[in-house]
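Each letter names a residue; the fold follows as tokens. Both lines appear below:
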Amino acid sequence: MTSARLAAQARTRLDERLARFGPADRYQPPARGWIRAIRDALGMSAAQLGGRLGIRQPSIVGLERSEERGSIELATLRRVAEALDCTLVYAFVPNQSLESTVRKRAGAFLRRRRQPVEHSMLLENQHVGEAITDAHVDEVLRDTNPRRFWD
């Protein structure tokens, strides 16, 4: 099986899985972070959470601040989530389907590949001017290793 077909199958499977997530804005963290929001909602003090993790209260405050800044480590978030009886969910949620992203890149790849030919044709006053169609993009997607789209 070609790399183009394997990549297309992988995109399809991931797009199906990721579609369930819905729009990414649903997952924006609360203003003070998930740790603080869940801890407060449970009525748990920083000292009590620290006790569950085997660390002191000031360290919990530090963890909450590092989460707010976006500098907390995933392993730490996972430990804190477990202490809060939660599950850490980590995912990339694409802004559009992976298939759409690759189709756009394939179209750009086609335009870059055609540019020298179109330039030569223009110099000879033989401009083709053919628009890139979905059929052209489909052909490139079918016959080209998608790694070439990202150069």
Q: What stands out?
A: The chain has a mean pLDDT of 87. The chain has seven helices and no strands. The longest helix spans residues 98-123.
